[in-house]
Amino acid sequence: MHSQSIDPWTHDHVFLGPRHERNERRTWFVVALTLVMMVAEIIAGMLFGSMALLADGWHMATHAAALGIAAFAYRFARRHIGNSHFTFGTGKFGDLAAFSSAIILGIIAIQIAYESVMRLISPVPIAFGEAIAVATLGLAVNLVSAWLLRESHDHHHGHAQDHDHDEEKGDHHHRHHHHRDNNLRAAYVHVMSDAATSVLAIAALLLAMHSGWVWADPAVGLVGSVLIAGWAVGLIRAAGAVLLDVRADEKLENVIRARLEAGEERVTDLHLWQVGPGHRAAVISLVSDHPKEPAVYKRRLRGLKGLSHVTVEVEKCSD
Prior knowledge:
Blueprint: H1 20-48, H2 51-79, H3 93-121, H4 128-149, H5 172-179, H6 182-211, H7 216-243, H8 250-260, E1 266-276, E2 279-288, H9 294-300, E3 307-316
Parallel strand pairs: 2-3
Antiparallel strand pairs: 1-2
Helix pairs in contact: 1-2, 1-4, 2-3, 2-6, 3-6, 3-7, 4-6, 6-7
């Protein structure tokens, strides 16, 4: 992946995450795995007349579509990395895909809740052995997918010095949040939501089978829908914040101000926003009695990892 530097004359607009290509390969593999599982369940359901298999197969089709959006976003961002039509690069395509996936996840939660309520109102006979087998197989596939899509944290180590040692050890979660790949997170949440649904379904089916409480299955379905909806809302907030250029990192803003105001200069305007996973851009206005060239101030910001695009405007103090 391209490295970023603050250059006095030119700007590099490559704002992809440090593991973009790895994440892309793994996401495509999970898409293929999900599609194979989906086709196998639909064919088996048709051959054996199993509604449980058919229903789960078409349910997996929805997840395959969402995972496909994530994989396509990785591919599009990589293929158009040098396209000048994208003013600040293609780093945000992942967040756009994550936002779309989160909406699909919310729709899935509503669908599960609706089906669960209908089952509570009008219970239907359950083929327990077959349903448990399907849920177990689905759980196995989702656990393998979740392992492939897990987000490694080793590239976040060594960032303690990024902000002039002003961040305490307890701020690791804060730094990780600003380097998170929301597109990978969206794909991971999809497979984890399916895995959680499978675990809840297995527990409910076992309870209903041994106790005769048929209502346990749809009741647990409602619990699962609430859990999935919560994940969807969290993902919408995270991806939406990047798409709407919400303040990227307040701690980094403070460090930038401290470095630039080391002399007689004062920062009059500072805009900092995320342009890709682990990449932020800054537009800064300074005022000084004896203003220097913008390149001087850019050099003061060297060494701040994640600060990939800097524009500095300097004005002479009129008073």
